[in-house]
Amino acid sequence: KKTVRDEDVSGKRVLVRVDFNVPMDQSGTIEDDTRIRACLPTITYLIDHQARVILCSHLGRPHGRVDEHLRLGPVGRRLSELVQRPVEVLREAVGPGVVRAVSEMQDGDLVLLENLRFYPGEEENDPVFARALASLADLFVNDAFGASHRAHASVVGLAAHLPCVAGLLMEKEIEQMSGLLEDPARPFAAVMGGAKVGEKIGILKNILPKVDLVLVGGGMAATFLKGRGVDVGISPVESDRMALIGTIMQEAETLGARVLLPEDLVVAGSLEAGANARVVSAGQIPADCMIADIGPLTIAAFTKELETCRTVAWNGPMGVFEIPQFSNGTTSIAQVLAGLNATTVIGGGSTAEAVTQLGLAGRMTHVSTGGGASLQFLSGKVLPGIAVLADRETHH
Ligand code: 3PG
Questions:
Q1: Which residues form a coiled coil (predicted)?
Q2: pTM for the structure as a whole
Q3: Least packed by Cβ within 10 Å: which of 132, 195, 274, 323?
Q4: Which ipTM did the prediction report?
């Protein structure tokens, strides 16, 4: 893909789509600014090369209406602290006021447009909205990997009206993610967890021919165990996925990929803080209990396997890590990965959140900023926001 480095941006108005969809409380306090920090390389590059930088993002899901709690003001202020220069935060994303503000920009200036999803045209990919955005700029840079699975006006629509290239975060995300799918150093293990099998099945199917090993934990282990005839108590099971899991297990065997399920588990009557938790072997889950985490024997077995690997992709926590007595599995796996001399790629969403909270993000090769986007990418889908980016070969 062509990137911002392939363009002469000096003196140009550059519209940069970023994913500043950060967790923010009702009072506007940003709980995790990882996604803002992740865009700094592109933003600094553009400033250093005398571009006029117009940033745009969505925040939350206001569905085409103004929501005072979802204004980008707090995000702009945090960005300003991080880049140590003024960021002009506009109260609109299109219209005469925005046109005026942009016309007054000097080289190296930074402007942040208002939440794109205040406009129905954003999610509808309305060409009128896309054109209004495009008219503000000379070049479109997409750095919003986390939003690239959405065929929205600012993600795909803009490409019809402006030359468009990848930002540096987008470039890094594509490189790291496709590295897993194309030529991973082996042994290669995929660690899969999280509550829902449904969300991970696409990745499993796509990655199976490439991996040597799949380690299954988290709530989704219940469906796998049940498929092997194990009684899982009151753990939620996705019965409609069981046949598909059977097929995948057979395929794994044909391909020579081992699939390891937990041999012991932390179980509890409910997934609440203070719930009575105990460790049982996988074959002995009490009828009134559900799976809350992987157990110590499983952690030891998974650790032993991971220590031999040269590439590890991790998607989905090993248990309900938000609750201390169910967080051991996720914490231990994160610590093991942090210490490995291997390529370690963490899928976005709750796995990234866990690794970041543990302060271990900097010790992984890559922590994706995309939740849904990284799931779809690893499932082998072509993301609409990536599909529209110019290829190096087609523009000279
Ligand atoms: C995300 O948080 O995964 C992205 O910002 C996309 O947000 P969305 O799921 O509301 O489209």
A1: none
A2: 0.94
A3: 274
A4: 0.98
